[in-house]
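Session log. Operator J.P. requested a structure for one protein chain; no other inputs attached. Running the standard single-chain path with token output.
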Amino acid sequence: MLLATFKLCAGSSYRHMRNMKGLRQQAVMAIGQELNRRALGGPTPSTWINQVRRRSSLLGSRLEETLYSDQELAYLQQGEEAMQKALGILSNQEGWKKESQQDNGDKVMSKVVPDVGKVFRLEVVVDQPMEMLYEELVERMEAMGEWNPSVKEIKVLQKIGKDTFITHELAAEAAGNLVGPRDFVSVRCAKRRGSTCVLAGMATDFGNMPEQKGVIRAEHGPTCMVLHPLAGSPSKTKLTWLLSIDLKGWLPKSIINQVLSQTQVDFANHLRKRLESRPVCEARC
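Structure written below.
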């Protein structure tokens, strides 16, 4: 199957065949099917992860009439890969260790994943409907710097299709300036399937955003946020955030672990304050 997939993709790369819409579509669908087949394994995923993984394959879904460039297809594939890997990590319930738990129930856990490194998992319940969180985290992504002190700025550099973005994020200094300014260039993929929403991402290259002077280029990924209504309380939202970051530079692991764990706790608190400052009807009107 893998050999056939590469042959089909190779065929679509020849100039005289690039305008053959059917072949391009078959190549994209084949990549999507192969990605799904090779997604990370583990124990049987919970219901909501299973639902997203079964139906999330962007590359295998129906394409829009406009064909994407080779680079855009690569970004689409990268976003899908990030989502599959991140959901695969979340679906494996073994090996998680508690880093911290707040009085309000917010919990941060961590584990070491082969070929990825140490990842952090935040689980919180927000007393707001999922639609408000989706709008704030996805549709108003560029406004995050207004309410999250850990982020100075987020810009969408390119949008590909309906739910894939290339972003540049400039992070603030942390740990009393022990961690200097970092920036990230990432591909992000947002999915909505039924009552579940997923925003996944990972580091990527983007020619129009080279490294900035005085800022260390760090890397995300695979990472994701999963949103779904709390069982029995649809007006509340369960948020799970998988965080995987390579901050680069010469930093002790103890400082890195402390910074990343605290970043997740602070994020949840700032997100609540942001949502509480918005009228509920604003997300629905």
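Operator note: Residues 129 and 235 are 5 Å apart (CA to CA).
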